[in-house]
Predict the structure of PadR family transcriptional regulator.
Amino acid sequence: MSLRFALLALLRVGPLSGYDLQKQFALSVGHVWHAPDSQIYPELRKMEAEGLVEGEEQARGQRGTRRVYHVTDAGERAFQEWMRSPLEYARVRDPAHLRAAYLEASTPAAAREFFRAHIAQWEGELAQWEGELKRIAALDNPMLARRLAATPPPDRERTVAFKRFTYEGLVERARGEIDWARRGLALVDGLEAADGEWAGSGANGA
Amino acid sequence: MSLRFALLALLRVGPLSGYDLQKQFALSVGHVWHAPDSQIYPELRKMEAEGLVEGEEQARGQRGTRRVYHVTDAGERAFQEWMRSPLEYARVRDPAHLRAAYLEASTPAAAREFFRAHIAQWEGELAQWEGELKRIAALDNPMLARRLAATPPPDRERTVAFKRFTYEGLVERARGEIDWARRGLALVDGLEAADGEWAGSGANGA
DNA sequence: TGAATTTACCTATGTCGATAGGGAATGTCC
DNA sequence: GGACATTCCCTATCGACATAGGTAAATTCA
């Protein structure tokens, strides 16, 4: 359900072809709401059928076409209503915490590998979000620039502020996960120092 | 796919009926991997068909029955293999950050309500996980006690340590979300102080 | 003893999402 | 001009999940 609002968020700035929309999606809104193109196109068609967006065929080259979508009044109202509605929280399904809770069933080596991989995963995320923050600070992000160009000057600071705030949140999240996994590595060290290498296979321990 | 490993994690401790399993699931593993009973029962049947668990019908009262499941050797091997395999990270779909990125389209009042609701949501989670940590410290959690009873003494500290560590991670996560939302409230205050009340309806600002 | 609750388990329906493709037209480069 | 890349868009298949129920038997409680 939230995919449509993610798409509306991006389309409100101005009309875009399906392809440009999904390209820009991946580089902006897609950082907080992932969707592959195979999901975006059918969703756009659905939204069109429901009157939230309108698509117009445009010529491309001699015989090609593309479809350019814009948000309708109904679409704008739906977006505003969503912004005011209570958020729907997904139920937790956290593979890392699931595994961490049962690491006594593993070995120190496998546990360390798990934490190292977790750190690597979230260091990748951290680097990405820090890069985005730099681009925001430099106003060097094409999607944000496009958005600011379509925004009256009094609103620009606010637009930038909320975008910045969001990425700061992603940075903090990534840092939290890295810290947690580092503490996990320390825990494995401590347990191994106390007990020696353990092998957790078998339901009742080694 | 991870539901089966969550179920195996719990079942490795000892055989359980389907009903007891889903009850205990909700109070333990379900904190990191949610699944309703309507999902658990079919999954157990599937796992049985694949040889990961075995179920035995037992009499219950005069005419009733229940099915008690235990992990097979193949199931144990599958669990161990999963513990060693690279974790599969779900793609991000974060409704709160999605909305936060576009709060300039909202009003200060609605933005504050959003952050307050977010704080309330995560304060609920925080209270729950802190409660679990207290129960772990007091060894007052029936599932953990059952698990420790089935665990050789040298392994008990380790079992408790990883469980504690996992809930500490959940606590930190909750705190991070609350802090973020508090900073969001401060941001709204600051923007309102600078610009006065804004109304973000309309794609190009008020 | 009968009503209410719990134990025990299940199905149906639909949505959302993953993944592995695919085709056609246009544009770029050697 | 042909090979390759990009633009533009799409489908099929399947698994995971949400939700709204449902039935039957046993147990509990007033």
Observations:
- The mean pLDDT of chain B is 91.
- The two ends of chain B are 47 Å apart (CA to CA).
